[in-house]
Amino acid sequence: MEGAKIVVAVDESEESMYALSWCLTNLFPHDKHSTLVLLYVKPPPPVYSSFDAAGYVFSSDALAALEKYGSEMVNSVMGRAEAIYKNFSTNIKVEKVIGSGDAKDVICSAVEKIRADTLVMGSHGYGFFKRAILGSVSDHCAKNVKCPVVIVKNPRKK
Amino acid sequence: MEGAKIVVAVDESEESMYALSWCLTNLFPHDKHSTLVLLYVKPPPPVYSSFDAAGYVFSSDALAALEKYGSEMVNSVMGRAEAIYKNFSTNIKVEKVIGSGDAKDVICSAVEKIRADTLVMGSHGYGFFKRAILGSVSDHCAKNVKCPVVIVKNPRKK
Any stretches that span the bilayer, and where are they (chains A, B) (predicted)? Predict the structure, then answer.
């Protein structure tokens, strides 16, 4: 029997890294052969979002800088995630998925496409880019994905 | 080290029983000494809710019948839950907590009081009594409790 696919939505937040730790501690006991899927969603290409949201246009230099920033962010987030799961076990099967667009839609559709068994995410993720103007990403995902959803809070806010 | 306290909010719904099964399968591996806390919230006493919500008064016979119905419901829900966890393992430490009042408030305050490590619940629970008029109970709890919250959907709706 193939193991479960557990998606963790990671982003720039401490909370999402804590969600990953929670997931590894609680959903990856040693006798299971689950696959950890790290899902990171890049913000939509800035050329569109700058027109749509803010109503002004970035110079091409600023655009290039933003795109470079986006790629560096992917590496930074995935690097932090890697340090966390390698600290737990070197035996975990890991897949990395990078999406692009509106985080809440991309996460929901990725979960369906991957046929995930569980989605784990922070409660206030994706605040860094202020992408979640209408309600939080975790709210939306909890309502819309069909598999169980684990919403993890930042323990520092306790 | 004492094990974690995992609260499962159970109610009349199939979904909450499925949430309990998910919890036992995924959060109770054999090497952990967690305590399963079954939390059932009875609706508020009908004499108050009848004045508050519907604006009319039940006869005392109807009140007695409703209260009896409430107690029978506790036994029925706890009985179903018991059958499920005993089917998984006879070694699980189980506590039963019965609350009374507005499900979303009672669940949130019980989770804090018990110092639960995780709350597991169905996504559409407590619909039986239509107690969740303003938003779902799981939405509210996911936003308000400090520990990780697992929201489990009825797999039949897939």
Answer: none
